[in-house]
Amino acid sequence: LLMHRIASINTHLLSATGTAITSASGPASPVTCRAHHDGSMTPLAAFTSSVRDVEWGELDAFQHVNNKVYFAWMESARVDWMKSMKQWSNVPAEVGPIVANIDCSFLSPVDFPDTITVETYPVKLGNSSFVIEQKMTSELQKKVVAKGKTVIVMMDYTKKVSIPVPEHMRANIAAALDHLKDE
Fold first, then answer.
1. 93: which DSSP letter?
2. Residues with Cβ within 8 Å of residue 11, at least 6 apart in sequence
3. Is-contact 47 121, C-beta < 8 A?
4. How far apart are CA 36 and CA 39, in angstroms?
């Protein structure tokens, strides 16, 4: 179900001219950077932008998006970000991430119809964990409608213990943090 949901999310990147490059199944393989209008480039490891339409079934009795839906949007965008960083390569099956803590600040209600962009980027790297933040922006309202923060801990699932972030993941996240610090 999660992979089906990820496949249905469109990820948009901007070309140097500001034109959207879209892939229905997430970031396109040959695209390795997000180009900005000023010509600078951001590695995908630093930033992903997942775009999705609000669905009628995501509304609650008050006719705005139910709070639990924001967490699903965050999850799908978080997985898009990890896939764009090639985080799953060279990781044994018994090792992987778990969400240790997640929070979301709801800033403005979202109605139907609308399109939401979820920006995902790292903000901290620890020994066995890292933190990502996410901003959810409404196309209709033209503003950030929610902000989220997730602490992810790397685990050995068989031993049920935390482990250091694998070296290739650590290098990718550190490079992303360095790049974002310079922006």
1. T
2. 22, 23, 26, 27, 48, 49, 50, 51, 80, 84
3. yes
4. 5
